[in-house]
Amino acid sequence: MDYIVEMNNIRKEFPGIVACDDIDFQVKKGEIHALLGENGAGKSTLMNILFGLYQPDSGSIVLRGKKTNIANPNIANDLGIGMVHQHFKLVHNFTVTENIILGLEPTRALMVDTRSASSRIRELSKRYNLNVNPDAKIEDVSVGMQQRVEIIKMLYRDAEILIFDEPTAVLTPQEVQELTKIMHSLIDEGKTIILITHKLREIMSIADRCTVIRWGKVIGTVSVSETSEEKLAEMMVGRKVIFDLDKKEARPKEEILSLEKLTVNGKDGGHGLKSFSLGVKCGEIVGLAGVDGNGQSELIEAVIGLRKPDGGKILLHGEDISNLSIRERIEKGVAHIPEDRHKHGLVLDYTVQENFILKNYYQPPFSARGLLNWDTIYEHAERVIKDFDVRSGQGVEASARSLSGGNQQKAIVGREIDGNPDLLVAVQPTRGLDVGAIEYIHQRLLEQRDQGKAVLLISLELDEILDLSDRIAVIYNGELVGIVDADETDENEIGLMMAGGKRGAAV
Amino acid sequence: MVDLIYQLFPYAIAFTIPLLLTSLGGLFSERSGVINIGLEGLMLMGMFVGAFTISQTEAANPGTAVWIGLLSAAVFGAIFALLHAFACVTLNANQVISGIAINMIASAVTVYLARFLTGSGNVQIIRGLSRQTIPLLSDIPVLGRLFFTQSYATTWLVLFILAAATFLLYKTKFGLRLRACGEHPHAADSAGVNVYLMRYMAVIISGACAGLGGAIFIVTLSGEFNGTAAGLGFLALAALIFGQWKPWGILAATFFFGFASTIANVSQVIPTLAQIPGIYLKTFPYVVTLIALVLSSKSSQAPKAIGEPYDKGKR
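Structure tokens for the assembled complex are given below, as produced in the milestone run.
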């Protein structure tokens, strides 16, 4: 069996870090080959080299038996390599067709011939069951559809080797299933797929073979049928990973956060929050489960103060905080791990140490008489990155932007938990993280709980909610469907409730 | 009242045209993702080059001097805009600062050159463009009197450019790529579009349009270069935003400015308007713009990547 892609001894260094350390990587024609590794392990770098975005410092790439030099993405395209990036490269106010043909526009009498293009797209869409409407505007279609547009973009360019960079990170469980089907139909048509991921379950269900990368080195390539999730996790992290959390019995105490008939009008035609009541006690984790866009963001923003409620009360320790500023709430012990770490979590061009004091820079010991005390700030940051295992090239002096996603997230979690908050609002705290980091953050959240603090966990990952929560509240259409004890429920029940279950309606 | 409109209309159109063309230039630049605050300076450059060329050549060939002047204004506008493109695209400079620099350089260089080459800071042309009444079309009721009487050839040229620009931006692959560069340059790049090249071309086009716009102002309205573009470039920029970065929106916005400014300019000689204090009429278009910009800022259709230098590495 010949390899369609062979990458030999690929080495790529960035300032302060060896992203790829003499990597050998081979892919067979017609397989789904997973590339597994923690964030920052070097898998994206390796694929960007294959796609021509980066040039390797040394090593060679052999495609279909021929040594090639891929200087830029255009050459990769010509060689039949296509890539779906984690962040889609689509122009929001162009139609699907315009996005797909961009760069390769068919023309007739000077004009872009969108009609023939869209009929070809319709054909491709039919053949691979992608269900894409070529005339829709990107801003009007769902994320799942946008991803399928990216897939057609590759197919339109006759790509044979398809690289998917973390394709499921943005998808709902149903969309993931659909994507799996699409991938199999691509394989049936003779394509080869390279799947970059850190999700073990996905690899087990989709991939044929899997190459594991850790710290820029290949740990091994295995057949998925001959391995298990545990083994893969161990290869990826370098030690045994505990899948079962060490979760003690919760000892809930007095109620710290009470939402009383909280109403928040929806933004951009969203559902908003309708007369939502919920209590969170000290010493417990309350999970909020729901499909994205059912009022979660309104709830979060109202609780932490980003948005004024339109009705009802938010009580913290029995005191109404609905009209307090964000800073006043922080001072009263509310912390927030935001959903979007770039938008609300970090100032990307600040250093790590500066990001650590964003919320309390004005307080001693970080500042005195209006001046910042850099020595204390430095020491504080050093301690937090050590405590929370934040890895960065230049320590606390590194800009937040230069950190990998997982380390950015750990930095935020570190900052929020380090402040020792009474109430922690954790929104998707492990989004886009690898197994090792997830395990770590979950432990820290449980620790918070065991210390008698309250955690409100909002997540789209049902597993996470089920694993961590003591009680689970389900939100649908901005309304509370019900609250169940985590011990007495399962995925099915919650799943039904997430679809508005008490009314028996399906989504 | 109707007669007043008939009287004012040719002036309003004449005032609109240079604004419209300059604004269209800005449209190209900004749709490709490069803010062009330098429109004022580019216009000024066109005014100087146009006036200078015409004043030098009109003795020898009176018939064509105006057109040679317009052409050279466009060419020099384009060349001058290269500077902006180089700073913004190649050097990743802040586009606003670069635009301000363009304005400052233009006002200094043109006056210097005018003094150096002609001995005076003002460059006058003897014959501008003459107005023509188009036979047949001018006989159409109402429209004929409004549009086809006493019109300049440049008006038709610019309206043609408007149509061509619309076609270019929305129907051709050049336009598709250019707009993609302004909205999501990484998407364009990964699709094999050369973002740098597209932006260079867009900025050069904007320079040519602004230069030509400036020269048209000289040959139709002012008749002399006097070292300032009197804020016309900024007005064009405002029209671009007011028009929501769309060719026909720009047409409406510039026409509004043109008409309002014309009313303000002639108000003293027209009895019905003379009663209104001049200051109200003069500030009217600007106040309306301000209000309109505030109101429309929420639903702004600005290109998404505008103002962002394109950096391949940043994802």
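The longest strand of chain B covers residues 123-124. The beta strands of chain B are 123-124, 224-225. Further analysis is deferred to the final report.
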